Each structure stands twice: as structure tokens, then as C-alpha cells.
Amino acid sequence: MHISFIPGQLQDLWDLWGLEILMLLSFTIQVILTVYGSRRKDIPGMWIRLTVWFTYLLSSLFAKIIIGKLTEIPESDPDERNIRRELKALFAPLLLVQIGNPDAITAYSIEDNRLGLRQLFTLVLQVAVVIWIIVKSWTHSRLSYLYLPLLVSGLIKYGEVVWTLKSALTKTSGIITVQEIDDHEANMPSLFRFLPHDIPNIELILKAYYRFISLKPHRENWLYQPLYDSLPWMSIDDYEPEDIFQITDAELSFMYDVLYTKAPIIYTKAGFILRLVSFSHLVITLCGFSILFQQNFPRHLKACFIAAVLGGAVVLEAYQIAQLPFSDWAIVQMIKHQHLPFMIPCLRILGPRATNWKRWSNTLAQFNLMTFCIHHDKPLKCGRVLKFRGMDMMLKKSKNRRRVAFPKELKVLMVEEMRDIDRERGLKPFNHRGDWSLGRYDCLHDLKWSVQRDFDKSITIWHIATDICYYSDSETSGQHCNAASYTKIQMAKSLSDYMMYLLALRPHMLSMTTSNIIFRHACEKLKSLLLEQEESVKDEKETCRILRMERVPHYSKSERRSETVVTSKWHILRDAQRLARNLMVRENRWKVICSVWVEMLCYAAANCNVDYHSEQIRRGGGLITHVWILLAHKTDKYHISD
């Protein structure tokens, strides 16, 4: 392959070592994907997503380039043996092993699963080309016979990818079918009954597994009826909040693995056998090549390189096999086969460690509208270019986002409030976003208007009103509030900032098309109010004092003319001020605020498209997805709402 624009010496180097360089880069990519492929589910950052995305795309690109170079290998001459040609041909099955994708990632996004048929065609074509390269390079030498075990290993690795893509979103999933649930339903309670109760976490993981396979949350059209009445052991109502969230963590981890990894295939009996066969053939190839290497070409540089890459492939495969026991899937299989020797001792080792396994980021994203308007809405470098590309506002919002550790107190609050909501709604689909909470605290008559506006408008005015109440109470909270009240105030503030984060940076998860318009409108009105003050406003506390104490001016004629259809006849600051003043006169205001925020979050979670939840779990997870999975188990999809 001659490349005209490369200088002479580099061209010679490329012609001589280009294939080896590409194979080395391909191997490096596989190492990166093996180590970081699954870390994106517990690291919520741009750099990890970019790293995985970039290497995932490069993996496919390098495969095509390498196969293209391999097709240039001339056909073997039975009268003349060419060692260099035979060594090059060994790269073909080795490439299959490399690009069979590591266990940690088979799909970058949900769309990759949907395009599985197209990927299947590409995979089959690549396998056909590799087999053709092997056939035309065959010389009946001992080196040629090493193609076969390496080809078997590569075909198995490729087969795992095809199997995983096929099973991720189809009815014949690689985990368990409805028929299997029916067949084993009688045995499930016995598994729980005979569990060793002195081993922590294993009951929670087993319950999460069976809740997951019955719900199948990753399938949008999967009809589900709650099994609490017929199968009471599926219920988690009597569990502590910490345990409930641990079960939910494990459920979402199972969902991530089904959509984006080989886990549901590897942990089947067939998958385990195939993995042993693949690894053994890889080791056979390495051992055979090592013997030939010492006998025939101990100082051949290309042979040295192939030996190193083969050794690296064996080490990488051994690393992946060594990681298999440290998974929720492995614990489930050990429980199912606990009658076998060594299973209980293994569970005693792995069970206590399972608490520390990272299944999601365990953080809560936060975004505050007032903080953004006061401190962070400043011009960016290259602002004109970014504005032209429509990226300026998104980057500003991203800079203002922060993350805090997900507090245990919030887990307790969420579970308590959701139990109250469940008593109101039964198994009906979620179609309220504050009414139940306001009715429970006798506020519905006075505050119903605030939750009956468009959802994004309701979130915005409740967010501003929560800030007004928060900073008003912050001066006296340390002196007059008990610990429980102070905790409730902090949790309400966290939920408020989380919902504003969804509106500002994840509007698609709120199922609203006008969220960006509402956000810009709110920013404009807040900044306009602050600019009208005689002295510059430096912090959120002063802003809230102005909103609480002073009269918000009417819009001018020019402001009215600039309004959009979405924001016309809506005075956001007056609404927020009215809501805050109504809440401030109530002693139980923080109970009301917390309840309304939880109900709004439940509404958003229940009405968010399944695909967005599937995407969220590969971005580090989020509270809204945990709420969704909890609600889904108690929502009857057959139910026809009144």
C-alpha cells in the first residue's frame, strides 16, 4: 500500500512495519476498552465517555484497515515457502480475537443494539475475508496449522458479539424467558429459603436479579403486571431504604450489562464453555508458536512481535476471566448452584465485598438557576463561534453543574414519600405531579395552580420558591431547627437543584419540548430584576431577599413584544413570589416542598422514554432512573386509566 504524501524513509517504514503498527494500536485499543469499557456506568464524566467512544470507533476503523492490508498478501506458492507471508497471515485470525470486543463493551449506545443486523452483516463479511486470507496463505507447514486454533478462538469471540447484539433487545434474550420464569417459579422461593443468612448482600442481589428478569425494563413494549400479589417474595416494601436502593442499584447494573456488555452471555453454561474453549485455543496457539519461534526463527523481529502480541492477548483474556467472579451475575449463578463444592465458601468471600462494587456513580447532579444567573453566565472564550454553533449556552450550563454524594437521608426521604404516593395511586400509571402531595397536606386549594402549569414552568417556579424559602430559613435554621427539620430542608434543596439540572441539561428526560425556552426566559427575567437594583447583587441570599420582600415590576411593552408564544402571559417571578409567600406562612412548608418535589420526580421518571433511561445508566446513572425502576415494578401496564 503506497501512500504518496509520506516521505521516503517513512514510506519504507510503513511498507515494512505498517501492519505491525496497526496491530499494536488495535491491541492498545482493546486494552483501553477492557479496562474502561464498563467504568462509564460509575464515572459520570465527559472524559470517560469520550475515551470509550473514541476507542470504540477506532476499533472498528483499524479492523477495516488491517483487513485491507492483509488482502494484499500474495497467494502462497507450493514450490516456494515464504516465512514472512505466513507470519503476516497469522495476523488475520489474531485480528478476529482482538476485535471480537472485550467483555466490558459490545455496544456504545442503545442505537448500536438497534443496528445489530447491520453490524452482523459487517462481522460475517470480515470473518469471510479472514478465512479467505488463511486459505490463500495455507502451505501445510507447521506454522500454517497454528492458524486453526487461533481461528477457532477468534470465531468464538466474534460469535459472542453476534449473540449479545441479537439478544439485547429481542424476545429471546440471553438472560431468561417468560417460559423459564413460569417453569422455575416454584423453585425461586426455595432459593431464598435456603440462602445462608449469615452472608450479607446475596439475598439482595438475588432479589434484584429476579425482579429484573420479570420486569425486563430495557424493553419498551414489554407488557408487565406487578407480581406482588401472586409472588409476595418479589416485594421489597418491608426493606430498609438503604437495602431498597442497593437492590435497585443491582437491577440497573443488570440492565446495563444486558444492553452494553457480554455479561448475560458469559454467565450462561454455553457461554462459560465457549470461554474456556476460546482461551484454551489461544494458549495452544501461543505455546505452539513459542516452540516454533525457538526452533526456526529466534531472531526474526516480526516473529518476536507476533509472540509479544499473542502473549498480550492471552494475558488480556486471562485478566477478563479473573474478573468474572467479581460480578452480581456470578453471585446469582453461585446461589443457583450452591449445592456444588466450593460455592458457599466463594459466596462467603464475595458476599461482603459486593457492597463496595460500584454499580453507578452514587452522586446527585445539582444545578441552581440563581447561581447560574449571578456568577456563571459570563462570556466564554471563542464565544461567537460557540454561539454560532449553538453550543455556548450548553457549555455555560455544564460549567455550572456540580455533583454531590447521594446522601442516605435522601434515600430515606424518597422511600417514605414514594410509599405515601403508592397508597394514593395504587397500580395506576403516574399522571400527577404534585396534586397528591398538596392534597395530603391540605394545600391543594391554595397551591393547585402551581402544579397545573406546564411541567417545565412548574419546576421553574417551585425551584425559585424553594430557594426563597431556603435562604429565608437559613439564618434561623441553626438556632431554632432540630436536626430532622434541618435535614428535610437540605434534602428539599438538593431535590430542587436536581430537578433544575434535569430541566437545564437533560430536558429530554422531562418529556418537554419547551424546556430550553423556559430556561432562557427564567434567566432573562432574573437578570433583568437584578440589573434594576441600585446596588449590585452578589449572592443568592440577597436575590432571594429581593424576591421575598420587594414588589416585582410589571413587564414593559417592549418586554411583552419580545415574548414567545410559550412564555406570553406568564410572569415567572410573580408566580414564584406568590408561591414562596404562600409556603412561608405554613409551618409544615418543608414537608410540603419535599413531597411535591418527590412527586414531580416520580412523574418525570414514569413518563420518560425507556431509551433515555437506558442512555442514562451508561452516563453514570441518576436518581431519576432509580425512581423509574421502583415505579415500574408497581405500575400495571394493562391498566386503563380513568
Automatic annotation (TrEMBL):
Signal peptide: none annotated. It comes from the Eukaryota. Pfam families: DUF4220, DUF594. The chain crosses the membrane at residues 16-35, 47-67, 120-139, 272-294. InterPro entries: DUF4220, DUF594. Keywords: Membrane, Transmembrane, Transmembrane helix. Residues 53-371 form the DUF4220 domain. This is DUF4220 domain-containing protein.
